[in-house]
Amino acid sequence: MLLSVKDLAVSFGGVHALALSQFSLRDKELRVIIGPNGAGKSTFLDILCGKTKADKGQVFFNDTLITGKTEVQIARLGIGRKFQKPSVFPGLSVYDNLLLAARMKKDIFSSLFFKATRELNDRLHQVAEKVGLVPQLQKLAGSLSHGQQQWLEIAIVVLQDPKLMLVDEPAAGLSTEETEKTGALLLELSNDHSIIVIEHDMQFVQQIAKERVTVLVSGRLLMEDTFSVVRNDQRVIDCYLGRTNPQLEII
Amino acid sequence: MKKKDLIYYIIFLLVFAVILPLGHVAGLVSTNTISLWGRYFCFAIAALGIDLIWGYTGILSMCQAFFFCLGSYGIAMHMLLKTTAANGATVPDFMVWNKIETLPLAWIPFQSSGLTLVLCLVVPALFAFLIGYVLFRSRIKGVYMAIITQALALAMWLLFLRNETKLGGTNGLTDFKTLLGFRLADTGTKMALYGLSLAVLCGAYFLCNRMVHSKFGKVLLAIRDSESRISYAAYNVNDYKLAVFVVAALLAAVAGMLYVPQTGIITPGRMDVKASVEMVMWVALGGRGNLKGAVIGALLVNYLYSICTSLFPDSWLYILGFFFVITVLFFDKGLVGVVDMAWQKWTAYKLRRAAIS
Question: Which ipTM did the prediction report?
């Protein structure tokens, strides 16, 4: 198991945000987590990447205990995070955005005397091509469209060579066409990385959920199964999707 | 982009390295004016530091005037001790009036010029390191950083005001005669200090320019734009912030060291809250996030200050305030931003003209 979680709990001001007894992820697995608002999905990712400290419980990543480690330590171990709101560096060019993300020595002196090598440039180009941003390389990231910023952020995470990518609502605010492109990109990436995706858009979930889907409700695990089983489960429909959810009707 | 920078550099060097000194030799520019610009160069050096920490990294530090004064007081203590020794006294005059008969321990190292030079750099760097270490580790950001550093500047100002601190209290330190054996009153010394300030400014600009164009500079911008994203990219943000904070403090200290011999006096008034705010305003007016803007802002605002205070002494603060409000409201990239915009409009106009004909 690449990732295994035991008895993880965190509460904010007395409210249990997350109480996850068990969760595990295989290597190179693409897992989708769904659940209504306040189900603890983003909180779970926050704990995995070290942004939020858990009250109790353990998270093992590659048999290393990561609960209690800092963001930088966890990032170095190989967990990369893509945020819900695109967070890129708007004042830097797309190329520089990618350059900063690439895996290399990141202390002050290496940065002061850094010279780009040919291998690195090739690698940056290769990733830019994967997310379709080669024509925009010299543009300021702040001038990109919302969708392009989402892809840039995915590229930033990919360049860190993470074993595990945490992707928070990658399809939020995208057009249908862009959503499909993002889904294809994630599927392609899942050949090389393990990925956890949080998503609301059911059509998008159907596109990418080739394996298991985890359903969280009020911070607890409701069920874990393939998308077709989850979609037809009465409890899921009742407490999350609702009978009148128009998206479900379409599917 | 490169061409435009070159124009800035040529104009700057032409005015300050050729025209002003030649004018002085020809008797058109007074020694006083030369000294005045020498002092402005010091402010510009400090402004470079503020631009690094605020313009590039997005950390508003309101205690740069304190670091400036640490450098100033160090060199002032050294020069005052030389005057005292020349007069055959054991302690400076102000200590005699305060009934201090033996030289305080903290003053003793400043008898040596070499140690003074070292201490003027090490003490501010150490202060900046300690302050920065505590503040950045506690994840203090944004407006809280500004408030805390401002409170710190205020506390230090109050400390330096007191006679018990043995640094001259409200009156500060003055009555300097020589620096490294050169008489400060000599025109030659004044010209040399002008030249030295100009050279240090150019050197500091060159180094800062190298820094912001390296990957280090890109990390600084990334910290300004999205601190969480850059730390998830496995950069240790606190190290970078601390490094740039110390560099900014060092620039301010070097500026302070060059400033005192050209001014002849240093008082705690140089490090009050207003002084730090003014230093930030130079950078804002010139154009933050742009090293040229910091230098131009510091030079221009101080030049305006000396013109305005002689023409209409009471209205300087209103004039400065007016410019500041205008800049914040309409020109957030400062003067350099305005020039850039005009340049772009001009080249676009030329292109259109060329396309028509």
Answer: 0.77
